[in-house]
Amino acid sequence: TVVEFGTSLGIGTCLLHWLNPDANLITVDVAVETFMPSDQRVSMGHLAKHQGISCEYVTMASWGYEAMGVDLCFIDADHSYEAVRLDSERAWENRSENNAWAIAWHDYNDRHPGVMIAVQEFCNSKKIDLQSRSDSDTVWAWKT
Could you give the dihedral angle defined by the CA atoms of residues 31, 118, 122 and 19, in that order, rounded to the nearest 10 degrees? Predict the structure, then answer.
């Protein structure tokens, strides 16, 4: 089971599906619409829907989404400190107890200090190591 917090146009949704087409994919966003670069209003997940990707679309605050047995939670929703803190705690509560699991955070960079602080505090509080690559703004923690 793969859960994405923050759908927007559905670019992440497409990638998550293409990387694991057999996964049960759920994407959660508080909004029902977003905008294309041309300011054209489109439904949330527009690009993933256009690709015909099978996915469950959930409209609600991501930190309130409860699902047991999540193998991967990709957090890319509200980039404020408080939202990332809440999303991280929800991902932790939803993680798989029976399988390997991972939590990944997008936009971990100096342009989003709230993301960086919340992720660091979360990993410290759970005593888990934060993994990263120098050429990416995505970081993760996992257990095999």
Answer: 50
Phi then psi for 48, rounded to 5 degrees?
A: -65, -40
- Compute the 3-state secondary structure of the chain and give helix, strand, coil in percent, each to the nearest 5: 30, 25, 45
72: Cβ contacts below 8 Å, ≥ 6 apart: 1, 2, 3, 16, 23, 101, 102, 103, 104
Dist. CA 70–CA 96, nearest whole Å:
5
Residue 16 tokens, joined? 């998550």
Task: Classify residue 64 by its DSSP letter.
Answer: G
The DSSP H or E segment spanning 34 is: strand 33-35
**What sign does the dihedral 47-53-59-61 (CA atoms) show?**
negative
| Angle in degrees, CA 115, 22, 19, rounded to 5 | 45
Pairing of strands 72-75, 2-5: parallel
Q: Write the pLDDT tens digit of every residue in 11-48.
A: 999 999 999 999 999 999 999 999 999 999 999 999 99
